[in-house]
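User: I'll paste a sequence; please echo it back and then give the predicted structure.

Assistant: Echoing your sequence first, then the prediction.
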Amino acid sequence: MSDRIHVLHLDDNEQFLDVVSTFLEEDNDDIDVTTETEASEALSVLQNGAGVDCVLSDYRMGPTDGVDFLREVRAVDERLPFILYTGKGSEAVASEAITQGVTDYLQKEHSADQYDLLANRIRNAVDRARAQESLEERESMLTALHDGMRSLMLAETREDIAGETVEIAVDVLELPWIAVYLLDESAGVLRPEAFISDLDDVTEEPPTFSGGESLAWDAFVDGETRHHEDVSEMEGHDAESVLTSELIVPLGDHGVLLAGTTGDDPLEAVTGEFVETLGANAEAALDRAEREAVLRERDRKLEEQNSQLKRLNRINTVIRNIDQALVQASTREEIEQEVCDRLVNVDLYEFAWIGGYNNINETISPRAKGGTEGNYLASIDLDSESNPIQDALHEGEVGIVQNIFEDESMGSWRKQALKSGFRSVATVPLTYEGAVYGLLQIYASQLDTFDGDTRSVLAELGETIGYAINAIDRKEALLTDSVVQVEFRIPNSEDFLYTLSKRTGSNVDLRTILPQSDGSYLIFFSITDAEVEDVLASAEESLSVSEAKLISERNDTALLECRTTDTNIATTVADHGGVPRSVSADPNGGRVVVDLPQTADVRSFAERLTGEYPSVEFVARRERTSDTGSRRSFRERLDDHLTDRQREVLEAAYFSGYFEWPREKNGEQIAEALGVAPPTFNQHLRAGERKLFETLFEPDSV
């Protein structure tokens, strides 16, 4: 709104019009006068939007009068200041004019102060009208802002708040350019998030603003509102923009609110106040949305963590129950069925099954299952080349499919899995010491059931089941009345005993191996027709041997002890479920005789052994009846009676010559070799001896 006053003067006396306009314009720099002698022409000036601020009219003007013209003006604009300026006035005329909404009434006089008085009357009338208009405009803006604040404060995202801010401004202001720019922290720029534009040079998205290149960025960094009345010559102004006046209101750390005008239109004070108030409210809304977003994200993470924790607690509870079942199980079938039955007790899991693995032809055959499958296993091709089982077995890791519908690794199984209501699946190899005993698959009816923590738990479960199956196989080989005995020839091996035999040119027989808590092995072996000093020197040359000692020497056969960190073929046999009956080495190689249970897959066992020792050759397979029932029964009772530590101490003492006379090693030496204190050794030795004789002489009490 301009400070100048545009007056429309209507009078049928042209000479008088000239006199009045001359005095008003020459003596008052802020007044411009347009004169008309016809009421119809004057009315046309108003209707054509000439920006008239005040109407000055005579009363008597031929066919019409000032009051009639006042009625016509009020039909166009009810609030436009109207001064009746006449020399023929009367109280009746004044009363009628007031009734029709006249602003002021002034009689013409012929005095020097007449035109100064008229100018003051015009100026006062216009100032009052402008003040009233400004007040009403401010009230209207505040009302619109109040109405829009509800939607602004309900907006949840930065983008929604930016859009609502622009909408509120558009509803109130008639400006060609309103925009909200938000900070893009990753790029370090202000990006236009919402805008309304009547500018010819802005047809799509406006440009971004960055440091040192724009007035908006400077205002954002300084955190101060900037009002530029003429931006065309300012450094940092977009040269292609047609804006002349610009108001930039920072929105805290979030961005800026921009309002601009073009041409000669100024940015009114009331408009500026509204934009600043709107900007302050937008900043408050952005602060609130940011806090709420942080809280929502925190709540989401907490909910996710709680859900994950509950899921893990349920799974861990099931795993503990499974571990207890594994300890109590006496057959592989019991192990596998217990695992499946207990897993489907987890709310998330619908179906679980275990398949046996034949590593010769790499095939899978179902052995146990639990839960609801809907004939799923019978409908899929277990021998197909592309399926999650093959991937997990080849990689040796737990395979996870979080979305069966989208994951390509499901291969030909996907369609049937979806028909059965399955949405995610975990495939767990059952392994122990590199040997694969089968696999476990768990199906869930929900997406994203198996997260990273669950994967780790299932991997440990797979190893536990593999260990349990291995232990069952070894137990069957030890206790069964009839075993399968297989013999292997070893033409070449890097094992310590075979290397020692080659170096010394003597025969070496393994007597026993005692695994130690630090991961090493205490090995007792005998060697014939060899110089003990040469044997000890050769043993100590091995990088894996930390110490070697002579235990006893009789009839050209020496019993020695050494500690090594390398695994050997005997431990490998045991890890794969066999019982090494004899392990011998000669300068040309050696042989290993292994007992397996009748139910064992000899071919798979041989394949696993040759996989780790490529030079091993299969020699023979034969059925063998184990020791007599009475002797086996004694061994069983003794095994049940002794603790692992007591058995270890007894074996170490026996092979160390502790029971020889004179003793070849005393208790302190054996305790040191076992890494225990002498009193502890004596305690376990006495307890073991007592249980041995108790089992021998008082079997009924054991």
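The first helix runs from residue 14 to 27. Residues 7 and 176 are 29 Å apart (CA to CA).
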